[in-house]
Amino acid sequence: MSDPKQFKQRVHDLVSMVPDGKVVTYGQVAAMVGAPRAAQAVGWTAHWGDTLVPWQRVVNRHGRLAPTYPGGFLGHAEDLQAEGIEVRDDWTVDLEKYQWLPETEVVENLSLEPAALEWLEANLPYGTHY
DNA sequence: ATCTTGACTTGCC
DNA sequence: CGGCAAGCCAAGA
User: For the whole model, what pTM was predicted?
Assistant: First the structure.
């Protein structure tokens, strides 16, 4: 999965399949598109990417919102709250509660490389095993 | 093709 | 989870 041309497309598709009321982390998105270390690139893509994608469901490792989201933290918080997601005063959300843990078949359908699968198993330790 | 940027992450306190 | 230094990746200049 090292086709840079499809990177944006993959990120776009993946973020678009995140369910309402759920969030994912940049690292998770990166791993699910086959590039476990490209979290920052995902952020870049999010900022300059397609606005039709529900980027509000993407937060960083600590559940913190995006500083330069259109409308700032407030704008981001409003979009999340509109889906029923609770945002704390420090602009973070409860990952344990809202993070999207994709079903096994969804992950298998992505045809990920071993390294990416490894990352998922190590970082989504909520029981699921791919 | 090199240099800089940035909605980030991983170690190590 | 909190903070800091390094590391990584794609895009823009």
Answer: 0.93
pLDDT digits (tens, 9 = 90+) for A19-74: 999 999 999 999 999 999 999 999 999 999 888 999 999 999 999 999 999 999 99
CA–CA gap between residue A44 and residue A41 (Å, rounded): 5
Q: Which bases of chain C are under 7 A from a protein CB atom?
A: 1-2, 7-12
- The C-alpha angle with vertex A23 and arms to A30 and A79, in degrees rounded to 5, equals 120
CA A36 to CA A97: how far, in whole Å? 23
Q: Is the CB of A67 under 7 A from strand B?
A: yes
Using the CB atom, is residue A34 less than 7 Å from strand C? no
Within 7 Å: CB of A4 and strand C?
yes
